[in-house]
Amino acid sequence: MAILLKFIKFKGKGCRLSRFLLMDATMTAQIIDGKALAEELRQSFKARVETLTAKGHKPGLVVILVGEDPASQVYVKNKVNGCLAIGMHSEKIVYEKDVAQQVVLDKIAELNADPAIHGILVQLPLPKHFDEEKVLEAISAEKDVDGFHAENVGALSQGAPRFIPCTPYGVMKMFEKGSVDLAGQEAVVIGRSNIVGKPMAMLLINAGATVTVCHSKTRDLKFHTQRADIVVAAVGKPKFVKGDMIKPGAVVIDVGINRLPDGKLCGDVDYADCLEVAGQITPVPGGVGPMTITMLLANTIEAAERKAGIR
Length: 311
Ligand code: NDP
Known about the structure:
binds NADPH dihydro-nicotinamide-adenine-dinucleotide phosphate
């Protein structure tokens, strides 16, 4: 087995220390392929959709879009098409950006009462004149497939989740795929948003990891990441996590999606830099991204299964 000495510099506050690590020269991280896993899961969902449809509970998702934000239009299209591709019912409802909030609230009330609809999703962000929280809370907690309703956030924090927010749910599936045993592991989540960071931390706690949540006010981020067995980056800053911030062999999950000036996508992790330090790593694109919509489909199917009494 070829051996090399890998030189890694650690810069601390007021001091600089260096150390050599003994590594296999051929060692690069195992890649957790989110695209392949997403496809595998979507195929496995088809049989559940067929069973539900045969029982008269074809899973149905409605996506509400307000305005013409190009990125949101793409996300909504992908969500609706993802449903249709596996035999679910899905439709989008599009409003002009200056629509009155009450019009959207009335539509949500109508959908809450519609037995053919199991999931309702309002694409964020909403225009400025909307009270985002009020709109999200108007969705029935039983149909809140994004998992953003306070009741569902509470259920998750109590360790008995009903709907898990799609992106962290996808990350948990990736841990499963990579056979990452979370119990007893030191996990660092970078980012504390309601959509990713906080629910991710909660899921890791529920799985038995010891969790540190870092954010923009964290004093010494590297101190935390360097001792972590698992790092989840949800920062929104391209190539923010460098190889010298990672413990050799750590599992590195990159949630970030950033568009570079040349139009290419990149994550919050400097992939090339971390590839030879991490034990397992997710790429961007083709990592967490494809898992998010997949778990939206999963949540909608789960909602329909609950309604049908088979879950
Ligand atoms: P937010 O902007 O809501 O949150 C970013 C977090 O990063 C905040 O908690 C912020 O801290 C923290 N942060 C910012 N700067 C630093 C820093 N220097 N050091 C440590 N922490 C810092 O973003 P989201 O959580 O919504 O998204 C994060 C990333 O994930 C984005 O790139 C987004 O595009 C991507 N994303 C990808 C999805 C997917 O499907 N793959 C789905 C959702 C998001 P503070 O709270 O103190 O401001």
